[in-house]
Design brief:
Low-confidence stretches: none
Strand content: 15-25%
Largest sheet: 7 strands, parallel
Bound molecules: NADP nicotinamide-adenine-dinucleotide phosphate
CATH class of the largest domain: Alpha Beta
CATH architecture of the largest domain: 3-Layer(aba) Sandwich
CATH topology of the largest domain: Rossmann fold
Strand order of the largest sheet: 3-2-1-4-5-6-7
Amino acid sequence: MDLGIAGKVALVTGASRGLGFACAERLAKEGSRVVIAARDPERLQRAVDRIGEQQGEAHGIPADIATKEGIEDLTAQLKEKGLEPDILVFNNSGPPNPTFEDATDEEYLIAYQRMVMAFNWAVKSVLPTMKERRWGRIVTLGSYCVKEPHSELKMVLHNLIRPAAVGLSKTIADEVGEFGITVNTIGTGTIDGGDEESTFRINYRKRAAERGITFEEMKAIRIEPIPMKRAGEPYEVAGLCAYLASDLAGFITGQTILIDGGKARSFL
Ligand SMILES: NC(=O)c1ccc[n+]([C@@H]2O[C@H](COP(=O)([O-])OP(=O)(O)OC[C@H]3O[C@@H](n4cnc5c(N)ncnc54)[C@H](OP(=O)(O)O)[C@@H]3O)[C@@H](O)[C@H]2O)c1
């Protein structure tokens, strides 16, 4: 299937590993000219090299996309290199994990900055070019909790901030639709690519230790309510991302599409 995005410039933030990397890798396989942004320059370079080994085009720009200055600097570098994006895949590390009673004011603000303000800055930076070209795709990696809130402990900031980002996303979709730009969110469920350094594995090891159980036991508890009886794989998220970023998905906008193995109990 030709997704119609060969030669398009795709900026994927938070993409030196995990879900962001999988999306970047997939877009490069579709012939897009991929730019990946993340903070650690060495890991970023390894990610660029991996895509290069598969004959894909990838450029790495070290950037902290959770700050306005970081996004402004990234935007300036993209312009300088002639890589103004047709496609933005916005990914960032998730919010902190306190309980409601433990959450500090500062943690609320960190969550808001990472999930809402950073998304807002990133979208504003790519819109002028997309509007001029009258074509654009914006895809955010979010969470299934926008349709069914997490019931486990320490997820207050996820349950609060992820829906706020979707509210922003839907509003932007309304404003930019007439320019041929779509804005959608991927609501990921439990995804484990096996990377020991991933936030998923670090958090689950921590949660397992708190309960006095192993990582595998902790993962089994999380998987039990999933109809598919397994965690998802990053390449599966990447497939959905590539489709939403494609020319074929031009009439899908303002949506949150879940990829959670059937876990969320909402009808829609
Ligand atoms: N995995 C799951 O089961 C799951 C489920 C629901 C939602 N999610 C959400 O999906 C997103 C990605 O998850 P993941 O498991 O792929 O995470 P991950 O393995 O921890 O990867 C995060 C990526 O983002 C980069 N990054 C983090 N903060 C950044 C910043 N301020 N500026 C630029 N780059 C930054 C990291 O590189 P540097 O550290 O070098 O910057 C890394 O490349 C997160 O928001 C997570 O909450 C994941």
